[in-house]
Amino acid sequence: MIAFIVRRLLTGLVLLAAITTFGFTLLYLGGGDIARKILGESADAQTVAQKSHELGLDRPVLAQYGDWVAHAFSGDFGSSWFTGQTVSAAIFSRLSVTLSLVIGTVLVVAVVSVVLGVLAATKRGWIDKVAQLLAILGHAIPGFLFAVGLVLFFALTLGWFDPTGYVPFTEDPTGWVKTVTLPVIALALGGIANVTQQIRGAVIDALRNDYVRTLRSHGIPERRVILKHVLRNAAGPALAVLAVIFVGLLGGAVIVEQVFAIPGLGQVAVQATTQGDIPLVMGLLVATGVIVIVFNLLVDLAQGWLNPKVRLS
Amino acid sequence: MISPAHTTDPEIVVAPRDASKVSLFRRVLRNPLAVASMGFLAIAVITALFAHFLAPHDPNTAVIQNVLAPPNSENLLGADGAGRDVLSRLIFGAQFSLAGALVALLTSMIIGVSGGLLAGYFGKWIDTAWTWVISLMMALPTIIVLLAARAVVGPSLWLSMLIFGVMLSPAFFRLVYASVTAVRNELYVDAARVSGLGDGRIIAVHILSVVRAPIVIQSAIVGGIALAVQSGLEFLGLGDINVPTWGSMLSDGFTNLYTSPMLILWPALAIGLTLISLTLLANSLRDELERSNAPRKQRRKAKAPAATEAEAPSEIIRHEESGAPDGEVVLEVTNLSVGYPSPDGGLKKVVHDVSLTVRRGEVHGLVGESGSGKTQTAWSILRLLPEGGKIVGGSIHFQGRDLAKVSERDMQKIRGRSIAYIPQEPMSNLDPSFTIGSQLVEPMQIQLGISAKEAKERALSLLARVGIPHPERTFAAYPHEVSGGMAQRVLIAGAISCNPDLLIADEPTTALDVTVQAEVLDLLRDLQKEFRMAVVLVTHNFGVVADLCDRVSVMRLGRIVETGPTEPIFESPRHPYTQELLGAILSEAEPRGPLVTAGNSASPSPKGAVR
Q1: Ordered structural domains, chain B, with CATH
Q2: pLDDT per residue as tens digits for the range A227-244
Q3: Closest approach of chain B CAs to the CA of A126, in angstroms?
Q4: Which residues of chain A make contact with B491, given a CB cutoff of 8 A?
Q5: The complex's ipTM?
């Protein structure tokens, strides 16, 4: 088990190394005259050269990357070129906001999809039709467009929720629910559509297994057959999809945060991008990479718990 | 050494597939939703192509006094936050948004399809390399990557869509790669290679013809994703301000959401409808594709309740007992009929008027070839017919009740407690996710209401009773950790765990090795004697019948054709079908001569004649 975790973490590290190398090279080689960008068009050539030297941009990219990696290992990802704030501070203060949004969404997606998927697979009929319709809408409508609709209707027309802003859970739980509900719904729709379909299919497949008949032949109540045995066997494929969706949710959160003016990673990302604040962009790549790797590890562990064959190998 | 059969033109072998693909698109035209989707997409494309003629104004000309103007005769849909004509921007938006999505689609298609073909056709190392690239691309959210790229390349619609296209290429790669590896090993591709077709031509003719339809479906999906992500980027205000797109209109509309909420409606509708059309189109194409592949799959999969209609009910041959049968009747099935709904809306009967009586301590064999309805009969006694199956006539009397009529709730109390079941295939009949022990304990707790500890003790002694050498170890094991013979013993232990009065055994030894078969049969015989159970034993093997059964019913085409005590039926089978089945065991026992191969058979062949 420990060997399995170590192996997965090593793969994650290699992946992270690949991401940063790739990102660094592209950002620094493709960024053009960075010092000029920072100082603006009016600065004279000498100031630009001086700024370049100050930032170490006149050195070979490889040396710059070596520096970056060395510092990164001690937790120092440099400072923003524009605000001077350290990258770790800029990202950490926003990370918890985005994570609470995304994790909340993952939980909503998981619960709703299991309920809807199992009902659609076992009851068929109208609930299956609803699930199919939801799948089409959720697949077709991007989360941010849905978010705009939610703001218009629930926040501006009905006034049930706050249209913008964010209250941390630790400060005021009800305020947190009020600000986070609409963004979570907007983000969750696509995921629910996808995972519900997966669970529906997996449950239908699992119901065809011979052991289901044998379990029934033991007089085990139908509800228990489905919720304990069938769902357990159907959970593996659904979990794999959830892992893929999680990556999409992180990206979706960036846009949805803008709709609701939530001070999360999205704001940092948009700001850093428009300004060309490369240390911050690098920090973002690392942060999202780490989050994705950790989440995937958790999913793998859950897979092992669900499936004894995976666990033992 | 090439026989005529091998030189058959491969084109002809492929032909039926091709035909089904061609009609696929024609069939989709019958789906109204698909037609509506294609209609909307056609309108969008035409608008995009002729934007210059259709748009009343230049999309980028800002007129200060028109800022946020409501709809009027000059600006039919009003003007936006910069005083530009909304209708013209919507029309030109179609052009740029769709073209942007097309750039991403074509990029991903070219890279993905060619990469998939190469990797799938030529080799493993490309596959390994690609898997790495894909996992790298999957590890980061696309938006984050596009944002990072935008920091480098600036706000170019085309460049960001090009980069996004590269990131989307795995969608096509995986599809093509999977199809190619599946097709590569198919016989007709081998045949094509043997007949001297070059690799390039094999790819073009055989493989592309297989993946063509899935690629079209994938294109609709990928195109939709590209449009959605592009709109998202532009919505963030990261687009080129000189390029009118639906996404940048959204962005403008959102900034002015409080003052003129209509501004966001038009681009949202345009994007939403386009995406829904693409999704519906992809869905209906996929449904049609699956439907055209379905019959082949189903025929293989379904444990078919075989066709048993027809032929007039002939007389059932009954052998009389030597003495009057004694013992309490446990199960009395009378005129049982089972049917499945047929595609034409009618009912297909697979079991006709089956009657049988089983007494305490008696083993009743149900014999016949596959599809004779014996398993269907067994399942209907348990009321566990596959989906759609129904008892359509007759009664099943057991302990004073008609099982054909009791509620599902009551049936749950009878199953496992009074009637137990031993399935045919041991490995697939244990839930792979739970330990063997928990699967034995669970029913006992439910049916006998005993504690977990008691149930565990009982399970361990049952495991020992059915001859499992290390009960503790097997109790803690998962199904995949034990052999088939062991698994069948576990299932037998589970079946007898609540002291049932009736045991239904469905070919309990068929899936086992010959040596294990004998042991399991011995075990079954001992347990049956020990517990004085009534047993219905479904089998196609007369050897098993001779070994275990007191009485036999021979089934054919869903009917019982001959029934009676085992001995007289073995000694003087009267129905021709029974005679045939009995004859089969005799010939099975006979040693066969050396295998006669086609090459040295004595049959006259032109070649032989020449020699």
Answers
A1: 35-299 (1.10.3720.10), 317-418+501-588 (3.40.50.300), 430-497 (no CATH)
A2: 999 998 888 888 888 888
A3: 18
A4: 214
A5: 0.81
